[in-house]
Amino acid sequence: MDGQKLLYIETFGCQMNVSDSEKIATLLQECDYHPTSDVSRANLIILNTCSVRAKAEQKVYHYLDRFKRAKREKQQLLLAVGGCVAQQEGERLLERVPWLDLVFGTHNLHLLPEMVRAAERGERRAEVRFIDNDIRLDLFPRGDEGRGISRFVTVMQGCDNFCSYCIVPYVRGREISRRSTEVIAEIRSAVATGTKEVTLLGQNVNSYGLKSQDEVSYPQLLREISAIDGLERIRFTTSHPKDISPELIACFAELPKVCGHIHLPAQAGSDRVLARMNRGYTRAQYLEKVAALKAARSDILITGDMIVGFPGETEDDFCETLSLMEEVRYADLFSFAYSVRPGTSAAALADDISRIEKQERLSRLQALQRTLTLECNRRFVGTVLRVLVEGPSKRGDQLFGRTDGNRGVNFTADRSIIGSMVDVRIVRAFQNSLLGELS
Ligand code: SF4
Questions:
Q1: What is the model's pLDDT at position 233?
Q2: CB under 6 Å to ligand 1: residues?
Q3: Average pLDDT of the chain, as a whole number
Q4: Which residue in 32, 318, 344, 387 has a CA-CA distance of 20 to 30 Å to 260?
């Protein structure tokens, strides 16, 4: 289209950033920017950054270097940085990168249209103030009919937990819940345009509503969402193990739309390490919650996160992590070698496990997880699973969908069934997916 301005967003990190990028794209339609996947055609390039892993800032500066020449060659090109690195670095980014136009923090998405218009007039700005009300959470992607069979919906943001290794409370601010009326309105509107599945997002969804007396509890929110006609599935992430209540566990038994999968990061299997991480639960308490979840829903699949090589982690501590994995029998696990995040309380602890030792532990842990994942996938061979068909598979000659337990399934069928729920007989299990045929 002539005269249309093109927006390219590069998204790093978690699902919250993916969701924020969708909102940014929607917001900037009001300044006549439309998404492109071709960075060379873009009039506005946004880096939506993550600072959870080490060296995130260097990565962003490295990326910005790449765009220096493009800025010289294309006078009207605008360059912006958002997300967690923007929140941390603020004005410093503008000072260090003279060809950068805008910096916006995790609470400032709603200011973007105004900031972009200012940048088009030649103004450079950084906005990284924390805003302590929930209005900013009410931005949501609209009007993209047919695109979102499965959608993210933000229900809360921020975190009050201060796990000792984690930067999130510093870059996302304190917990704030979105009004349930807004959450419901967004989901109703998404369902009206074809959405079948929502994933409710928040740093710690289980503490939804706890800080506001006139808001519903998280289990009640799930019940209200469940009552929305046309919606087939509800997922949510992330759940802090210490905040998962019996009422929430009961939702897995009582609400068929709540999928049989939960991401429940343990982070470590040893009480000593869990205490140093400030996680707020013991190994036994974690396992009790897992047992209660399995009792509520016998086929529930549990995924998690683990950190190896946290300061002071002994070989015995690490073996407790491995034994926890065997007890829980995770379907999948995100695993990381510990790295210091400046500004967190763990940064004061001696990072005393060598890089080689961390890597060695990580390899052992990942080898165990590969066995557990394959064991989990093989269980499904010969069974018929309900699959939400999301689109063509990566190879393109098959379709791809997800089971209730969030297993990816490839199978051959006509594209006309994209967006529907179908029964698929599983014929083979691989490490990362299942192969099936229409039942
Ligand atoms: S619960 Fe802990 S790990 Fe999760 S976001 Fe909050 S501080 Fe970070």
A1: 98
A2: 159, 161-163, 166, 168-169, 203-204, 240
A3: 93
A4: 318
